[in-house]
Specification:
This protein is mostly beta strands. It folds into two domains: about 300 residues, 7 Propeller (Methylamine Dehydrogenase, Chain H), CATH 2.130.10; about 300 residues, YVTN repeat-like/Quinoprotein amine dehydrogenase (Methylamine Dehydrogenase, Chain H, 7 Propeller). About 0% of the residues lie in helices and about 50% in strands. The protein contains no helices and 62 strands. The strands form 15 sheets. The chain has a six-stranded antiparallel β-sheet with strand order 2-19-18-17-16-31, with no helix packed on it. Strands 5-4-51-50-49-48 form a six-stranded antiparallel β-sheet, with no helix packed on it. Strands 1-11-10-9-8 form a five-stranded antiparallel β-sheet, with no helix packed on it. The protein starts with a strand and ends with a strand.
């Protein structure tokens, strides 16, 4: 069996926490001078040169001594204790040595973002997370999955088909497939590049990839690259040349052997000629306009997709002096108004537009008249999320949507291939759990809890929530699993408690919402102990943002206390009679761990440990705690909080998004990456000597995870759901 290929029968079928990477380098000095930044211009890059993206992190811990009074619902602490600075541990986040005591094996992957689509006869190819799917539409009213690849090296962002060859941009790899038999693609070649591929362009035998590099300490917006590849022999791709761009190309177009690139934050475009292979000449700067999100080109006409459902056409006979021809705007959507043009397709008479609402809402495709005189496509191909073939329009949009456009003025929805959007995840025995919020579908106002069987990730149970607060945005946010209960926080609409001991029959066990006196419970994180729920208020910082609810009787839940925490709460942890609250500051850099003793929900403050990095959470060890920040892990003794000591510090390259603990290991996912993410296993068996015991690559950064005896479950909307087997 070829690598990346398998036959397959498809199963039935968070808000993202804001990722805070605020501390790349923190310098404390006297008389430091500000640096002046200069926007770079496109430069040539030698084939062997790969830009170095290094994140330097400085971490410091401080402590606030015990407060003398307990926090009550009606009184705020009046004591402002002095801050004691501990010695700082500072390091550069360079690659970690890994002992490989822990190994990971990818078992399965399902779902994920859909960014690009290609069509051949009655087969449509769709990138979904880290897989390529093939769907049959012989009957346009039924999109039937017939094939999927194995898990690919990264997220599929670009699908391009020409004749019997399919070109795929997955993570940092270009892959080619023989699709002469459309429903059984055969892998021909894999070609690795240095960054994450966003777009593919084919001009004759020249394949062009636009590449994205993540933000770094020296370039807060990241940068891009355009790479030219010889594709004369699809089974033997050859690198020709590369050109560095000042930003990742957002809009990309091709016409007459010239590639046009743009970024919505810049009013300068660039034109790059492909007429001098094997070399790329210097890019030609073009006067442009900002807020352009997509491009297309035909002959000497460049089309620009804007942020208000608008298309502009320019004559670019001389790319350095574009001449505006016309601008048209589609009618506002009845629900979402005007939208950002995410992609569009040209025909001789029409322009088919795919847009998203200004707040991310889904919108139906719209059609404009094409007034340009020049329309020709001589052997030019681009990857796209929108394809028009005959009377049908195919749109990659959280799955695949098929429209009949025989009457272009009135596109008619024919069929839809849907898949869940994976947010937070959990594990209960041999069952995986994940939540799906309503995301950008603001009209639906609902969320879902899914149960999937391991290891095949087939959906075995689903609970569809009902909105309790009619005036609220009700979206599932976080999932906390304890025993046979799943606790799901709901933005602006309280807390749901599910019985999950029978995965194929998920039952709502209880709810805190507007119907029982909790209309103002904007739940973020949650922890449960001894019949009490400790609920962090989502979006509430520096106010009464920790609520304690008696849930002994879920028919009569009762709020018993509220507390004020300085900052925005990320996680609540409970160990015996201690409560630990991890937060990031809302008005300054850094974060803190707040310590309370807990006696029947009466909390007594015991101390505050402050950090220069936002704190994601805390794990309690014997006589110490492991604080997980966005930059790394610190072990701090808690025997004497008047004199805490940092005994170990481990900085994680590319930062941290989420973590989970099992036995003597902390598992964590990285926050940023160029076409991939990482999953680490960090040993805390000797807290004074932290080290990486295992490491594997993930298709994307920013994953949420759960850990069981044999498996690690990782998910987010981009990569979908990934199951890995643990080996010790």
């Amino acid at each position: 069996m070829n690598k990346y290929l398998e036959t397959y029968t498809f199963p039935s079928a968070m808000w993202f926490r804001v990722l805070l990477f605020l501390s790349t380098t923190i310098l404390i000095c006297a008389g430091c001078q500000a640096n002046t930044s200069v926007t770079p211009t496109p430069t040539k890059l030698a084939k062997t040169d790969v830009p170095s993206i290094v994140k330097a992190v400085t971490t410091r811990v401080t402590v606030t001594p015990f407060l003398s009074q307990p926090i009550t619902p009606s009184l705020e602490p009046t004591v402002t204790p002095p801050i004691i600075f501990l010695p700082s541990i500072s390091s550069t986040a360079t690659p970690l040595p890994v002992t490989n005591e822990v190994a990971f094996e990818v078992v399965n992957q399902q779902w994920g973002t859909t960014n690009s689509v290609g069509v051949v006869k009655t087969t449509v190819y769709l990138g979904a997370g880290a897989r390529l799917l093939a769907l049959d539409f012989t009957d346009p009213t039924r999109l039937v999955p017939v094939w999927q690849s194995d898990v690919l090296p990264g997220i599929v962002n670009a699908v391009l088909v020409k004749d019997n060859i399919l070109y795929l941009g997955a993570g940092t790899s270009v892959l080619t497939f023989d699709i002469s038999t459309p429903r059984t693609p055969k892998l021909l070649a894999e070609f690795s590049l240095s960054g994450s591929i966003d777009h593919l362009i084919l001009d004759g035998n020249l394949l062009v990839a636009t590449i994205r590099f993540s933000p770094s300490g020296t370039n807060e917006n990241g940068f891009g690259m355009l790479t030219m590849i010889d594709a004369l022999h699809p089974n033997n791709l050859q690198l020709l040349d590369s050109l560095v761009l000042p930003w990742p190309a957002h809009g990309v177009a091709l016409a007459n052997g010239t590639v046009y690139v743009s970024h919505p934050t810049d009013d300068t475009f660039y034109a790059i000629s492909l007429r001098e292979p094997p070399n790329l000449p210097p890019a030609i700067p073009m006067p442009g306009v900002p807020l352009i999100y997509s491009l297309q080109a035909a002959g000497s006409t460049l089309y620009l997709g804007g942020s208000l459902s608008n298309i502009m056409a320019w004559n670019v006979n001389d790319p350095s002096k574009p001449v505006p021809l016309w601008e048209k705007q589609a009618k506002p959507n009845s629900k979402s108004g005007l939208g950002v043009v995410q992609g569009f397709e040209l025909s001789k008479e029409k322009i088919f537009i795919a847009s998203a609402g200004l707040h991310g809402q889904k919108m139906e495709p719209v059609v404009l008249e094409n007034s340009a005189l020049d329309i020709a496509f001589p052997d030019e191909y681009l990857s796209s999320k929108l394809v028009v073939q005959g009377d049908y329009l195919f749109l990659a949009d959280d799955g695949l949507v098929l429209y009949d456009v025989a009457d272009p003025a009135e596109p008619v929805l024919i069929s839809r291939y849907t898949q869940p959007i994976v947010w937070d995840v959990g594990l209960v025995g041999e069952t995986g759990l994940f939540i799906e919020g309503n995301g950008d579908q603001l009209d639906k106002q609902t969320g879902h809890l899914y149960a999937v069987a391991l290891p095949n990730l087939v959906s075995v149970g689903k609970y569809s929530d009902e909105q309790r607060c009619q005036a609220c945005f009700a979206s599932f946010l976080k999932l906390f699993v304890k025993d046979d209960r799943a606790y799901v926080t709901v933005v602006e609409d309280g807390l749901r408690i599910f019985d999950v001991h029978t995965p194929d029959n998920l039952q709502l066990f209880g709810s805190l919402d507007a119907s029982n006196g909790f209309a103002n419970l904007r739940a973020g994180d949650v922890a449960v102990a001894d019949g009490f729920a400790f609920v962090a208020m989502s979006g509430e910082c520096n106010g009464r943002n920790l609520t304690i609810v008696d849930i002994h009787d879920l028919n009569r839940p009762r709020q018993v206390n509220t507390l004020s925490i300085d900052g925005c709460i990320e996680q609540i942890a409970i160990d015996k009679n201690m409560i630990y609250v991890a937060a990031h500051y809302a008005d300054r850099l850094g974060g803190a761990v707040y310590l309370f003793s807990n006696q029947a929900s009466e909390l007594q403050p015991k101390g505050i440990i402050s950090f220069l990095d936002p704190v994601l959470g805390v794990q309690v060890l014997e006589n110490s705690i492991a604080a997980v920040t966005t930059a790394g892990i610190q072990i701090i003794t808690t025997v004497d909080l008047d004199n805490p000591t940092v005994v170990a510090n481990l900085l994680i390259p590319n930062g941290i998004t989420d973590f989970a603990v099992m036995d003597q290991l902390i598992f964590l996912t990285t926050a940023v990456g160029n076409g991939s993410g990482q999953l680490y296993a960090v040993s805390i068996s000797k807290p004074e000597a932290l080290y990486a015991a295992g490491l594997t690559q993930l298709p994307d950064a920013g994953g949420y995870l759960a850990v069981g005896d044999d498996y690690v479950l990782v998910g987010n909307p981009i990569m979908g759901l990934i199951l890995l087997h643990l080996k010790y």
